[in-house]
Design brief:
Elements: H1 2-31, H2 36-73, H3 91-126, E1 130-135, E2 140-143, H4 145-150, H5 163-166, H6 170-182, E3 186-192, E4 198-208, E5 213-221, H7 223-258, H8 268-300, E6 307-310, H9 311-329, E7 332-338, E8 342-345, H10 347-363, E9 370-378, E10 381-388, H11 410-415, H12 422-432, E11 436-442, E12 446-454
Parallel strand pairs: 7-9
Antiparallel strand pairs: 1-2, 1-5, 3-4, 4-5, 6-8, 9-10, 10-12, 11-12
Bound molecules: adenosine-5'-diphosphate.
């Protein structure tokens, strides 16, 4: 292009010089016509030499500019890094030398930018939070996979895709539109149906580049946080509810006694017995809550060092603990085969598990019923089975009996001094021992709880 400008300029100059020389010739020959011929020859020779020089200059100039052009175009090519430019002592040579001096710095700058870009992309891609950037026309300029998954879009999302095609949720579109119009940061909570109804905390803000305007949003999944918050609230409500009943009974019977029932020989003992039973219940609730809290905090803190636990002695001790309750209810305790196996965990906790299960099997049994316990070592695992001939558990309640405070028959459980926390503790302990628990039950026939824990050695 540049060569072409110079070529035109030189050609024009050449034509003008030729015209001027011919005009001078004509002027000189006007007074002496004999001069025409020699003047024309001299002009011809001058023009010929001038033309030749111009041609040679243009050829060299074109070659040098072509070399500079191709060097500049391959400046970022690592293979061309060692290439030398022929540099003369003229202006073009100066230009070539400064280009050569600049080349490594430009290459380094571009490499740094590439590295920085790759680093940022890797960070954004590995983020759990969804990241979305749009331009002023609500076209996606960047989004990571977490965002694409949250809105149910196909991965990878190509830059330039309209956000409207990607997101069907009007809430998110409104947020981005709002930021683009007001240019202000905003915070929202959104539930996205495309993300299996997960709830997100959306932080959106303007994104201003040197020549562009857009918006950026970060989506933080708070579904689990909300669930935990709900669980916590339910738990507090349940605990207060559980405490209220025995406290009300204690208060009621104490007031009755103070109001004169103390002298009522026929009833006063019964009232005191009720107060004692309710106080025992309160104490049971408190100790079960303490156990649950300890088990749950072990999830965060370091659990106590597991020890080898002898299954036989634990099972025998648990049977001894529920012996008297079984006798009172007329339930037979049958000890089946107990293998001399060991498991890893806490002896105290495993005994608590067996006592809870045996106690339930006795409590929810019928007079003259039976509770059978066995512990066998099978295929590297200890399988402890507690079977009863009790009332059974309705199939619709089976999946929920391990939840805190869940009881099939609330009145019956309370009457038996139950807290509704026993099975929740059982599941916690077994899971901490890397084991599992299953339950099979038939209404009116009985229930069977099977614990499987990895055997030691
Ligand atoms: P609870 O203190 O009421 O015994 P658990 O958590 O130990 O609480 O048990 C939860 C509920 O599961 C009980 O209230 C009862 O309805 C049912 N359940 C547990 N074990 C048995 C069983 N062996 N037979 C019948 N129902 C049972």
């Amino acid at each position: 292009m540049r060569t072409r400008v110079i070529r035109t300029f030189l050609t024009l100059g050449f034509v003008l010089a030729a015209a001027a020389l011919l005009a001078l010739d004509a002027y000189a020959a006007g007074s002496n016509p004999a001069l025409w011929y020699p003047l024309l020859v001299i002009t011809g020779v001058i023009l010929l030499l001038g033309g030749l020089l111009t041609f040679l200059f243009l050829r060299t100039f074109s070659r040098q500019t072509a070399e500079l052009k191709s060097y500049a175009e391959r400046l970022l090519d690592p293979l061309a890094s060692g290439e030398q430019l022929p540099a003369g002592k003229d202006d073009l040579g100066d230009l070539a030398r400064s280009l050569q001096r600049m080349a490594p710095r430009i290459r380094e700058l571009v490499e740094n930018l590439k590295l920085e870009n790759a680093r940022r992309e890797a960070i954004l891609a590995s983020m759990i939070e969804g990241v979305l950037a749009v331009d002023k026309d609500l076209r996606v300029t960047f989004c990571n996979n977490s965002f694409a998954r949250a809105v149910g879009a196909r991965i990878p999302v190509h830059p330039g895709a309209p956000l409207l095609e990607l997101v069907r949720d009007p809430g998110l579109l409104e947020i981005m539109n709002g930021v683009l119009t007001t240019g202000e940061r905003s915070e929202h909570r959104l539930t996205l149906p495309a993300a299996a109804d997960h709830t997100f905390e959306v932080l959106a803000g303007p994104l201003a580049g040197p020549s562009t305007r857009g918006a950026l949003a970060i989506l933080h999944d708070v579904t689990e946080l909300e669930r935990l918050e709900r669980v916590r609230k339910d738990f507090v409500a349940n605990v207060s509810h559980e405490l209220r009943t025995p406290l009300a009974a204690i208060r009621g019977y104490a007031e009755t006694l103070l109001d004169g029932a103390l002298q009522d020989e026929k009833h006063n003992r019964k009232f005191v017995e009720i107060i004692e039973a309710q106080a025992t219940r309160l104490s049971n609730i408190a100790s079960d809550l303490l156990t649950i809290s300890e088990l749950e905090s072990n999830g965060n803190a370091r659990p106590p060092q597991p020890q080898p636990v002898p299954v036989r002695s634990v099972a025998e001790s648990a049977l001894r603990t529920v012996e008297s309750a079984a006798r009172v209810r007329g339930v037979h305790l049958v000890c089946g085969q107990i293998d001399d196996a060991f498991v890893l965990g806490s002896e105290l906790r495993l005994e608590q598990v067996l006592v809870n299960l045996l106690d339930n099997a006795v409590k929810f049994n019928r007079p003259n019923g039976e509770v059978h316990l066995e512990a066998l070592e099978v295929d590297g695992a200890v399988r402890i089975t507690i079977r009863d001939t009790g009332i059974g558990i309705p199939s619709e309640d089976l999946p929920r009996i391990f939840e805190r405070f869940y009881r099939v028959d609330k009145a019956r459980s309370r009457e038996m001094g139950g807290t509704g926390l026993g099975l929740s503790i059982v599941r916690h302990v077994i899971e901490q021992m890397n084991g599992s628990i299953k339950v099979y039950s038939q209404l009116g026939v009985g229930s069977e709880f099977i614990i499987t824990i990895p055997a030691l050695g």
